[in-house]
């Protein structure tokens, strides 16, 4: 399904393939030879989203840009099934395996590989040819890579990055309090812009 959002219609090269139940929405630019497979969702909300030549987006992957966070995927990249990428940059020839999450402000260097169910955290930079092992977490600039049982080491790097402020523009709440009412209200308002979307 091709959808115009905020008066921006996806630009899809004639040689690209978009599966009938995939969704391409908003200011998305899909280059030659791309394949966007069944159930995938590629959505530009507030910033441009670009897929370079011969990118493969597998089943049920989600790729999105958000306000203040464009997404750019280089050429010859593969995004595996059920992966989630938001507001990030992938240089050419990057492999994103099944179930991977890549967060806002992350930059993945040429030929890097993120294996199944791994995470590349907020504002993290992977140098060229870096591998993130199965289920591990990359965090920091330059990236350090940790097994999932190293929460305190991960949090020591991640906490100062202030995820709620960087992504949602909302300060982290004091211990014992929640900022989710504010975040949900803001996101509800932002996502309400889809009410006027038009299927092409």
**Coarse morphology:** globular
H/E series, N to C? EEEEEEEEEEEEEEEEEEEEEEEHHHE
Low-confidence stretches: none
CATH topology: UDP N-Acetylglucosamine Acyltransferase, domain 1
Round the mean pLDDT to the nearest integer and report it. Answer: 96
CATH homologous superfamily placement: Hexapeptide repeat proteins
Overall tally of structural domains: 1
Helicity level, as a percent range? 10-25%
Main sheet strand line-up: 23-22-19-16-13-10-7-4-1-24
- Tell me the β content: 25-35%
Largest sheet: 10 strands, mixed
Rg (C-alpha, Å): 17 Å
Structural class: alpha/beta
Individual helix count:
3
Overall description:
This protein has 200 residues and is α/β, with parallel strands linked by helices. It has a single domain (2-199), classed as Hexapeptide repeat proteins (UDP N-Acetylglucosamine Acyltransferase, domain 1, 3 Solenoid). Helices cover 13% and strands 30% of the residues. It is built from 3 helices and 24 strands. The protein has helices spanning 151-158, 163-168, 180-191; strands at 2-4, 11-12, 17-18, 23-25, 28-30, 35-36, 41-44, 49-51, 56-57, 62-65, 71-73, 78-79, 84-86, 89-90, 95-96, 101-102, 107-108, 113-114, 119-120, 125-126, 131-132, 137-139, 144-146, 198-199. The strands form 3 sheets. Strands 23-22-19-16-13-10-7-4-1-24 form a 10-stranded mixed β-sheet, with helices on one face. Strands 2-5-8-11-14-17-20 form a 7-stranded parallel β-sheet, with no helix packed on it. A hairpin with a 4-residue loop joins strand 22 (137-139) and strand 23 (144-146). It is globular, with a radius of gyration of 17 Å. The N and C termini lie close together (8 Å).
